[in-house]
Amino acid sequence: MASKKLMNSVAGCADDALAGLVACNPNLQLLQGYRVVLRSDLDSLKGQVALLSGGGSGHEPAHAGFIGKGMLTGVIAGAVFTAPAVGSILAAIRTVAQVGTAGILLIVKNYTGDRLNFGLAREQARAEGIPVEMVVIGDDCAFTTVRKAGRRGLCGTVLIHKVAGALAEAGAGLKEITERVSVVAKAMGTLGVSLSFCSVPGSSKPTFNLAADEVELGLGIHGEAGVRRIKMATADQIVTLMLDHMTNSSSVSHVSVQSGSSVVLMVNNLGGLSVLELGIVADAAVRTLEGRGVKVARALVGTFMSSLEMPGLSLTLLLVDEPLLKLIDAETTASAWPNTPKVFVTGRKRTRAAPSRPSEAPDFTTEGTGPCCWGLLSKRMALVLERVCTTLLDLEEYLNALDRVSGDGDCGTTHSRAARAIQEQLREGPPPASPAKMLSELSLLLLEKMGGSSGALYGLFLTAAAQPLKTSTDLPAWSAAMDAGLEAMKKYGKAAPGDRTMLDSLWAAGQELQALRHPNANLFHILTKAVESAEAAAQATKDMTAGAGRASYISSMKLDQPDPGAVAAAAILRAILEVLQNLESL
């Protein structure tokens, strides 16, 4: 059963949370018209490297809590567990650049949607002449073998914010900061554990289920299940298991911590763990590390990067030397960074002798704290888009249910958000009659309004597909458009056919559409075969091992349903075909 949420509306919860943060912190400002928070003294950063980060909401205090002198310049937020829109990221970059900063570094967690959207914004900004670099942080220690999608970005990202911020404040250049934080990122790791699930606002179902005597090990920060389920145990036993996993040299994602190493330890509340339990875990972590001869240089305990109300925690270890410790210790005004003593935890005397018993008892009496549209006319395009929107809205709950198997259960919500945005645009006026222009405008709309990796992938597909249609709209041109869109998705999304993604459906359809290049091609015969192939490919994904996207982090044994993105893509193609067939019969 999903938990109750104290909010005004599901749609406005991310904006309301940022408004509350800014209202209570005079050092922050919102960028008008965007879900962007910036330092209020932005104009004072002329000549200094600026740092931008961000991601989906639901991870508070990350990321906006780490804005301030000595840390981040600004943050771009998405909806809950959804990557920020490209337009918002680009607006933040332009705003920061216009005050005369000496370059901008984007600090991005390794998730497909974040990587795509920040990457797209970076490319556009660089095309405008803005010096922008990007580092992608993957500190997850959960997986013992190499994954195509790479290691997920977790709480260790906050330490990168701190190191980069200290370097920027000291006057380091963009190249130096980028290189140094890239080295630091390779010397840390994070592992999470949870006692139960979290629930996404507006969803009626939890992100995963656990038995009363089970604990989820190796989970991410988006409510997805972990890599292993273990029986409930004591805090000492669970911490020992976590540290063993993180430092196991046979794992490709381990942290090379050994006797004599110095580390910064982060004990991070995933949102719903009590402060009492967090203290117990922190004690167990310090004792276990010191028992192995590891020196704990600093211990940061609190909520740094949460997963809504998830009752769990993550441990982060960062190998440090004295120069790196100075950067960790450097002053910052960021509200969520703890005021930690700048001394080693290990080696400090932690107890004081009890008072000796007085010889005489004292007297106390005196003592007093959219995909491809085939219409040649604007009216036909509008009919196609309306049917696609209706189809996606009808599938919302089904797609969410499929997505709960492998992700955060919002695939249907994401597609419905896109459908409503398209419907709103259609109410404002008909789509362009030019297929290339229509696809380009649809791409921009989805990139801004749909959100998540789906929005970025559809946006990439439509942008690329529009290019061949600028010079021709004959049948071979539509086949070329499909090919161009698929290649763009493969290039930036890092997925390939067979990876259990939306690409599987589209790729199957694209192979059939090659027949459009032949002379005297039968349009509706080919389209019908393409849609049938897409639907078959979508159903076939339930037997595939995920090789890309968030589902790739989940054991294939748990993926007994088709991929929701593939199902959605096939449904879109079916809707297009049916409208065109109806129009042909008129």
From TrEMBL:
Which biological processes are named by the entry's GO terms? Answer: glycerol catabolic process
Residues noted as binding substrate in the record, renumbered to the chain = G56, S57, G58, H59, K109, D114
Active site positions, chain numbering: H222
Q: What is its EC number?
A: 2.7.1.28, 2.7.1.29, 4.6.1.15
What is catalyzed by this enzyme?
D-glyceraldehyde + ATP = D-glyceraldehyde 3-phosphate + ADP + H(+); FAD = riboflavin cyclic-4',5'-phosphate + AMP + H(+); dihydroxyacetone + ATP = dihydroxyacetone phosphate + ADP + H(+)
Obligatory cofactor(s): Co(2+); Mg(2+); Mn(2+)
State whether keyword Lipoprotein applies: no
**PANTHER family cross-referenced by the UniProt entry:** TRIOKINASE/FMN CYCLASE, TRIOKINASE_FMN CYCLASE
Q: What is the recorded name of this protein?
A: Triokinase/FMN cyclase
